[in-house]
From TrEMBL:
Coiled coil: none annotated. This is FecR family protein. Residues 254-321 form the Protein FecR C-terminal domain. Keywords: Membrane, Transmembrane, Transmembrane helix. Residues 121-211 form the FecR protein domain. Pfam families: FecR, FecR_C. The keyword Nucleotide-binding does not apply. InterPro entries: FecR (IPR006860), FecR_C (IPR032508), Ferrdict_sens_TM (IPR012373). One of its GO terms (molecular function) is sigma factor antagonist activity. The chain crosses the membrane at residues 88-105. It comes from Sphingobacterium detergens.
Length: 327
């Protein structure tokens, strides 16, 4: 005979999608026993876990319905506040919704209300996840982590923006990073950089090995390689890259590789929340390769002016870039 505590623990395990079929059968049999009625939680405690999209197999539905109709629910004295009708039928409803599909209950179906969101709104931030994984988020980036992280058989997170991951090794629980563009990165324990936006995403591997999946395509990366996926073209490609360049943001640097000056000043303006204008058309077509500091505007503009032989002046709250005048 099971204790109420054992029934409660088994039910919570079921809600988390971790029960075997044999354990589900035990829950179905317990449902018929009046003595266990107080072992089950209230409906409002289980409601967040029930997906409206879940569909039962006919066999599971019949078995649970039979268990429900065979259970007699006696009237309860008003003074007994431990049990309310909502509790018993909530259990039946939740089993009805979840029994045949518990193995499909992935973190992708978990409402945002039971996720932890890590944000780096105004500056770069470093977070440590419950498993020991360290994540550095760039300014304007965010990471969503399920409250089931570390409990399920896989460790899943969702990123928007740029992040550097130093993943704690756990061979039994792969670490998966999901991106907005539809590219997913699967690792066991390694270091890599992810940039994830709506139209494209890429991952650059520093150490270890990762498996990248997107649009039915799969790549395995070695250190020094980048996988780039375009959601518009639904195409993924791999190439060798300079990891120092892609990790520059982590070291408070903006990295440029043969970028047009107009694109360079646009990125600097967004980084420092300032207005920069190029006063000469020919100058705007010049290219820049190198690194610009992300935490010192004066040094950033001075680096730019010396590299491109131009002047930068602050006029009416706007930085104006002009070619150096020859004497």
């Amino acid at each position: 005979m099971m204790t109420n505590q054992e029934v409660t623990a088994l039910y919570i395990k079921f809600i988390h999608g971790q029960c075997t079929q044999a354990e589900i059968d035990i829950l179905l049999s317990v449902l018929k026993e009046e003595q266990y009625r107080d072992a089950f939680p209230e409906y409002d405690q289980i409601a967040p876990f029930i997906s409206k999209k879940d569909v039962l197999t006919a066999d599971a539905s019949d078995r649970i319905f039979a268990a429900i109709v065979e259970t007699e629910i006696p009237a309860q004295p008003v003074a007994d506040s431990r049990f309310r009708p909502g509790r018993w039928w909530a259990v039946a409803a939740s089993l009805l919704m979840l029994s045949g599909i518990y193995y499909l209950f992935t973190i992708q179906q978990i409402p945002k209300s039971i996720k932890t969101v890590y944000r780096a709104a105004d500056e770069k931030k470093i977070y440590q996840l419950p498993d020991g994984t360290a994540v550095t988020l760039d300014k304007g980036s965010e990471l969503e982590v399920s409250n089931h992280f570390g409990i399920d058989s896989i460790r899943e997170v969702w990123i928007k923006g740029d992040g550097y991951f130093n993943v704690a090794h756990n061979k039994k629980k792969p670490f998966i990073v999901h991106t907005l563009a539809g590219m997913n990165v699967k690792v066991l324990g390694t270091e890599f950089n992810v940039s994830a936006w709506k139209d494209k995403a890429y991952v650059v591997l520093n150490k270890g090995s990762v498996e990248v999946n997107a649009a039915d395509q799969q790549l395995r990366l070695q250190p020094g390689e980048r996988a780039l996926f375009s959601s518009l073209e639904q195409r993924m490609e791999k190439k060798s890259v300079d990891t120092v360049f892609y990790n520059a943001w982590k070291n408070n640097l903006l990295a440029f590789d043969n970028d047009l000056l107009k694109d360079v000043v646009g990125k600097i303006g967004r980084q420092y929340s300032c207005s920069i204008e190029i006063a000469d058309t020919n100058l705007s077509r010049m290219t820049f390769t190198g690194y610009i500091p992300r935490n010192d505007l004066n040094l950033a503009l001075n680096t730019l002016s010396k590299s491109l032989n131009c002047t930068v002046e602050l006029i009416d709250g706007k930085y104006i870039i002009e070619p150096n005048q020859l004497n």
